[in-house]
TrEMBL record:
Occurrences of domain SCP (ranges): 25-132
SMART domains for this protein: SCP
Keywords on record: Signal
The protein's name: SCP domain-containing protein
Organism of provenance: Caenorhabditis nigoni
Keyword Disulfide bond in annotation: no
């Protein structure tokens, strides 16, 4: 199950963020996907995933965005190996970006795209995600929201 979500996160977030869609729309898309999972309505590889008991509603993190942007502008060939989160780096031709814009993702990540690396036709998106954390706890929607949160009934997400 983790592999499905990570690949969705990489393709959806970073491609969608590539200067064409404001971060608010990326965030909204993430939260709609998370809501679908929380309510047990999400289907992956022909299988309906169980509902999530503790899925949080995402908020944009400007500090993470700033860090990702700084790192991507260095045109990295490898991930930074930061201890607190993992990263994916994907190189593609800018013409291919439109192919990814309808994808989605569901992890709490930020991403950055750099059009300056190598030559003007390439971009370097970077996505980050938290290591060694369970994606979500299976159970009745909102039944295990963290103590400092409450259930948002409409979305089924913990806020």
């Amino acid at each position: 199950m983790k592999t499905i979500f990570l690949s969705l996160a990489l393709i959806g977030c970073c491609a969608a963020f590539s200067f064409f869609i404001p971060y608010v729309e990326v965030l909204d898309h993430h939260n709609k996907m998370r809501s679908s999972i929380a309510k047990g309505m999400f289907v992956a590889n022909g299988t309906k995933l169980p509902p999530g008991a503790n899925i949080l509603k995402l908020k944009w993190d400007y500090d993470l965005e700033f860090g990702a942007q700084n790192y991507t502008h260095q045109c990295p060939k490898n991930v930074s190996n930061a201890a607190e989160f993992g990263e994916n780096i994907y190189y593609t031709m800018i013409e291919e970006i439109d192919d990814f814009q309808t994808s989605g993702c569901d992890l709490q990540i930020q991403c950055s795209v750099s059009p300056i690396c190598f030559d003007s036709k390439k971009i370097v998106p970077l996505s980050s995600y938290v290591w060694n954390e369970e994606i979500y706890k299976q159970g009745a929607t909102c039944s295990a929201c963290p103590p400092s949160t409450k259930c948002e009934e409409v979305s089924g997400l913990c806020v």
